[in-house]
Amino acid sequence: MSSHSAHATAGHPAALLHQFDTADQQKDASTLGMWLFLITEIMFFGGLFIAYIVYRNAYFDSFVAASHTLNIPLGTFNTTVLICSSLTMAMAVHSAQVGNRSRIVLFLVLTLILGAAFLGVKVIEYADKFEHHHVPGPSFQFTEGGNPKNAELFFSLYFGMTGLHALHMIIGAGILLVLIFNASKGWYTPEYYTPVEMFGLYWHFVDIVWIFLFPLLYLLGGHLPPGSGGH
Amino acid sequence: MSDTTHHVVPVRVYLLVFASLLVLTYLTVAISYVDLGVFNALVAMAIAVTKAMAVILWFMHVKYSTRLTKLCVGGGFLWLMFLFALTMMDYISRNWKF
Question: B35 and B13 share a domain?
Fold first, then answer.
């Protein structure tokens, strides 16, 4: 096909960059690029996950004792909040696809509120860890069973992984503010809503990281009596 | 060209995926209190992988993406499995002391 005619017939010529033949081709390129970025993210979280798995196998008893101090109801609540925010994000993309501008803004705002709620609960959980001296460092204390040095390693991984996850959500919240502003100006139409969809990929990725963090950190050894230290 | 790019997923599908994710979350919490021995970790990870697959296929639209995107996503997770498998092969098979 002639690229010239594609330019002339595109609904929003301004949104179609000159190196692409069609809007579809441009969107496919954006999707592929976003996934390549997400794969680098998967790899770097993957390094932390394998570190956790290796030390969990090495120091199982201490890791179970440390895991027991995490608040499972709060973790479950936060998992629910994050899944709800993934739904509202998917609905924001859907609203863009069907051209419902006010719904795009509504669902993006709901996603932002749910993301803030998740971070709020995380603050409560972190504060509790500071109160109990469960934060790795000079004032770290652990008397709930296992070897305190190894329990400290658990909390290093806990703060490292959930902290990086929270940082991703904070960055996501910043991008959401920009998207909400642009969406309220009516920038996103069924012909061009790529930023909304690409951000959706990022937001769902952050949800997936939590889907693995929650059982690994919170639910480890839930079936074992507290302080028993495991098998 | 890719005729699947503008596939609009029905809201009903999103709600179904959403409900499944919630059910699986509460299931994994409930199962964590039951002693299954070594299978506790396996069941928890199997549920997490199922949830991640649902998010990737429907929420992230990979089910409706181009073959190149599918290949890219699949390749990324394949390499993640290499990372896990090769590292664990060393830690499990060698008598390394911590």
Answer: yes
C-alpha–C-alpha distance, residues A22 and A28, integer Å: 10
Instruction: Please state the domain count of chain B.
Output: 2
Residues B25 and B72 in one domain: no
Half-sphere exposure of A211 (CA within 13 A, CB side): 26
Give the structural domain span for B72: 66-98
Q: Hey, of B15, B25, B60, B61, which one would you mutate to test binding to chain A, going by the most A CBs within 10 A of its CB?
A: B60
Closest CA to B55 of A214, A45, A86: A86
- B20 with B52, same domain: the answer is yes
The answer to whether A107 and A88 are in contact (CB under 8 A) is yes
DSSP conformational letter for B59: I
B81 inside 8 A of chain A by CB? no
Q: Is the ipTM of this complex over 0.90?
A: yes
Contact B84 A39 (CB under 8 A): no
- B44 and B72 housed in the same domain: no
Residue with tokens 């969990």: A56
- Give domain limits for chain A: 17-218
Q: What is the pTM of this model?
A: 0.91
Q: How far is Cα A75 from Cα A213, in angstroms, rounded to an integer?
A: 10
CA distance B16 to A170: 28
Chain A touched by B24 (CB under 8 Å): no
pLDDT digits (tens, 9 = 90+) for A171-228: 999 999 999 999 999 999 999 999 999 999 999 999 999 999 999 999 987 777 665 5
CA A40, A45, A51, A57 dihedral sign is negative
CATH topology of domain A17-218: Four Helix Bundle (Hemerythrin (Met), subunit A) (1.20.120)
